[in-house]
Amino acid sequence: MENLIPIPVLCDYYEVELSFFTNLSDMGLLEIKTIETSQYIDSDAVYEIEKMIRMHQELEVNIEGIDVVFNLLQKIDALQNELTTLKNRLRLYES
Amino acid sequence: MAFIDYYKILEVDKKATEAEIKKAYRKLARKYHPDLNPNDKEAEKKFKEINEANEVLSHVENRKKYDDYGENWQHAEEFEKSKQQRQYHGNGQQGGFGGGGDFSDFFESMFGGPTSGGGGRGSAQFKGQDFNAELHLELKEVYTTHKRTLTINGKNIRITIPAGVENGQQIKISGMGGEVSGGGPKGNLYITFTVENHTKFKRDKNNLYATVNLDLYTALLGGEITSDTFDGKVKLTVKPGTQNGTKVKLKEKGFPIYKKEGEFGDLYLTYQIQIPINLSEKEKELFTELATLRTS
Question: Where, if anywhere, are coiled coils annotated (chain B) (predicted)?
Answer without folding.
Answer: 7-63
